[in-house]
Amino acid sequence: MKKICYIVGASGEGFKPFSPKDGDLLIACDGGYYELIKNGYTPDILIGDLDSLPLTDISCKLIKHPVMKDDTDMMLCIKHGIEKGYKDFVIFCGVGGERFSHTYANIQSLTYLLDNDCFGKLIFDNVEMFMLKNGAVEFDENAKGDISVFAYSDVCTGVTEKGLKYSLDDAEMTNRFPIGVSNSFTGKPANITVKDGTLLIIVEN
Q: Of the candidates 95, 125, 155, which is a domain's last residue?
């Protein structure tokens, strides 16, 4: 069974209930501590600069970092999970909030995970975001809703989409034109492949 590193951010938006298993790691990213406590979860560890979180009534292990640093609080949490040996990451409350720049930083962090032989998802409300690099992903017939596929690297070659409303066959996509926006599942198994490059995949509804 895969062990998962769950990270809950401070945006306060898009939290979804989940059920950590034995061996999973639950990290509160700075103000995400309040989101977890509010929803009945006790994190294993709190990591961040705590610029938006007073040091009172903390009921878990704490790693405090200075406000002036190169890494975002989310990146600090990701690096901690990697150091602990986790390969699969699920991030809640990493989208929205007061600063869009942090949303984009968290999207970029998904590529950092790939570059470290890990896989991560950003989950909020009814949306999942993840990266696919030089590989394939499959969806079964129960997948529903819309799916968009964007070139995240400059050029993605050998992009194939099968089983969706609109198909692609060995196509080239660039990060300068959103040709892959707003596709949809059809009730059949589907798969997406990229031979060379990194895709940002967004599944909605």
A: 125
Closest to 75 measured CA to CA, from 29, 34, 33: 29
Let me know if 23 is exposed, middle or buried by CB neighbors in 10 A (0-12, 13-18, 19+): exposed
Same domain (yes/no): 25, 106 = yes
Q: What is the pTM of this model?
A: 0.91
Residue 47 domain boundaries = 4-125
Confidence label for 48 from pLDDT (cuts 50, 70 and 90): confident
Instruction: Count Cβ atoms below 10 Å from residue 55 Cβ, excluding itself.
Output: 9
Strands 88-92 and 4-8: parallel
CB 82 within 8 A of CB 3: no
Alpha carbon separation from 180 to 58, 156, 183 (Å, rounded)? 44, 12, 7
Element (H, E) at 83: helix 73-83
Looking at the structure, tell me whether residues 120 and 192 fall in a common domain.
Answer: no
- Rounded distance, CA 91 to CA 6, Å? 6
pLDDT tier for residue 23 given thresholds of 50, 70 and 90: very high
Place of tokens 């967004």: 202
Residues 31 and 118 in one domain: yes
Considering 102, 125, 148, which residue would you say is the last residue of a domain? 125
